[in-house]
């Protein structure tokens, strides 16, 4: 779980006196009084403010804790059923056998695993990922075309870093993966949403968005899309739309960043041709081990056109020097010694069962809500009746021992109050049912309250998305 | 070894025809001809150029391969004695015992090690690093003050990201750690050098540099300093200068970024009080496991004043989501089960012997060069006679089977042709002696050539730094 340790400000002195604290402008007052000086005392009036407030880069103003992270300290309480996190379920991992193999790898190659590695990533791992990508139709890639990154988060960071100046536009689906929004904000990118429906990004809307941005004098740097089992929307871009999206992108010379962590998690084993499989020149493809194997190594990979790839390697070096050899060799040890396809298939079955359980529980307990039942991935994107506000309701849900992520976390403009993301990846089916029952109890209470103030749950019929 | 896989452009088609390649503007031509379209054909005249050339962010223009990395593909050839890399020697690591303990950790806590973790870093590891920092006088820090980063490289990236707008000034020693220069360039920071001598950064020069930058209307965001066993200069900031540097920084409200990967590698076990131990409010302290234990986990840590720390955690999340649990738990497994102080002491002795060997070989084979013999760390910064050019000479050194890093890699302004960095950390004493002998042979040849063209090695007496 991506647990936040970023607790609220604790300006209390740990070892210093309150007087000492005053002279230090509110940071913790540990240390020797000898550090005091005229400058510090002169500034001491601004008690408990940040003395570096005026020194930060403009991009730091845009950084804020994601709503997901802000939630995790409560959502991780054992008595709370968390439908909030995007953590894969790891209990099927063969940790016993794996630990022996990793020990052997350490004994045999510890001096490599513990040493610096290549900025582009371990050649063995870059070879291994080819067979994973082949499952989604990407068959023209060589190890030299692959760049290993420190999780997809860092991959998104790197591609944004090399492509986007402040004020540049990235077109994205809405709602949107919260981690991508965090990156875009931190590089002062303007995120413009194109419309989506149950078949993913709508090509016409994508093109209109490009044209409108260009007319406004803005530079559209790339489309960011999660085509398969979208986080949080749960939808998949239809196969029919994929070449159309690519054709529009090519025609307007807009790069496509295809973020595909969930592509192999189709519940029936179905896969869709990657955008990258249809266009080698205009697509940067990102995938990750985090959802299909495990996130604790923070290893993902990118495939990009030659010029972009070279810059990604330079950016990787500037950002992290090189991905960790130990993590990369742990993954190759796993891939080389286990039937990972069978393992992924086992996970798929488990997630399917959990999704079915959640869908059934929603039908039973929350029939007045709307959702598209996903065909893979980790999430259901739930539309709640008007009169309810997912963000305002959250504290009461936590009190009722169920957590979700309010829809507002997946937009930058305040939208999302009528939606929430429900994750079925980590909790057991039993807990999913309990969680949805608790959620229904909270929502029913909210609706009774709302009715008292004149908003009827029947207003849900005004809502655009129909339940299937 | 930080091996570059960033090979030169290979625009040869792998699966496509030459005709198809022409229409794809020189990237590899894999894929279906159906992808061709009017736009692509119109641009096809620019054969083999990067079609995204006009799309990159301004900051990407500043990214370039470091001279160190560009060198490694040849320097890692087994017949070459590499005095180039900054790799720690790992043969003393207890890999056999460690592998058993890591296997046990995996069996017991695999579901944690392989899962997402905290954006701030593993609390256990944040507790562990306190005892390491205490060795250099930092005793007022709590685990909540620590942020774990993906190596010091990412720590430098994060601090620059939150502090520096394009055009802002960072004051730094010269020569400078090449990885830091890479970060500063990638964030379009102006690096202004303050003067150093054998006692490190000169306080008067530091203050003059601040004043001059301020007068020029520039914002000085921080001082970047490697106070102990500097990379590449080998010098240590004297204890007497440290409070003076801090006083100047405070007076001008300039943050100090103290990068301290080598502090525990003083050959006689001597340590120096960290700048952070004297000032909790104005110092961001960085340290790393890469040089004192091993770099293959890419784990470092930061301690920062409260406001800055909070932004660093947000930036960490935007950059990498969270540091890898597996890496962090591997390190805590090591720290908890081994006498790491004894291990570092063993390394120190080994590096001392290697430094002595290099110093003796330089005295024997290259008496006409100048250097300060370091008291710790990994590097000797060698001044070579005028008339020689370390960068131009490098290909001939490689031919003679010895590699070093030309001094130009440690400056941004073309300086450094009369210097080279020689690493004694990784090669054995025998190889160090062989390497210096080969280097002397190359340099003697160069000098003979230089004499023929009128530049005498006796001009070395014009040089400022005296050999001790």
UniProtKB/TrEMBL annotation, chains A, B:
<dbReference type="GO" id="GO:0047536">
    <property type="term" value="F:2-aminoadipate transaminase activity"/>
</dbReference>
<dbReference type="GO" id="GO:0030170">
    <property type="term" value="F:pyridoxal phosphate binding"/>
</dbReference>
<dbReference type="InterPro" id="IPR015424">
    <property type="entry name" value="PyrdxlP-dep_Trfase"/>
</dbReference>
<dbReference type="GO" id="GO:1901605">
    <property type="term" value="P:alpha-amino acid metabolic process"/>
</dbReference>
<comment type="similarity">
    <text>Belongs to the class-I pyridoxal-phosphate-dependent aminotransferase family.</text>
</comment>
<feature type="region of interest" description="Disordered">
    <location>
        <begin position="1"/>
        <end position="36"/>
    </location>
</feature>
<keyword id="KW-0663">Pyridoxal phosphate</keyword>
<keyword id="KW-0032">Aminotransferase</keyword>
<feature type="compositionally biased region" description="Polar residues">
    <location>
        <begin position="1"/>
        <end position="15"/>
    </location>
</feature>
<feature type="domain" description="Aminotransferase class I/classII large">
    <location>
        <begin position="100"/>
        <end position="439"/>
    </location>
</feature>
<dbReference type="InterPro" id="IPR015421">
    <property type="entry name" value="PyrdxlP-dep_Trfase_major"/>
</dbReference>
<comment type="subunit">
    <text>Homodimer.</text>
</comment>
<dbReference type="InterPro" id="IPR050859">
    <property type="entry name" value="Class-I_PLP-dep_aminotransf"/>
</dbReference>
<keyword id="KW-0808">Transferase</keyword>
<protein>
    <submittedName>
        <fullName>Aminotransferase, class I/II</fullName>
        <ecNumber>2.6.1.39</ecNumber>
    </submittedName>
</protein>
<dbReference type="InterPro" id="IPR004839">
    <property type="entry name" value="Aminotransferase_I/II_large"/>
</dbReference>
<dbReference type="InterPro" id="IPR015422">
    <property type="entry name" value="PyrdxlP-dep_Trfase_small"/>
</dbReference>
<dbReference type="Pfam" id="PF00155">
    <property type="entry name" value="Aminotran_1_2"/>
</dbReference>
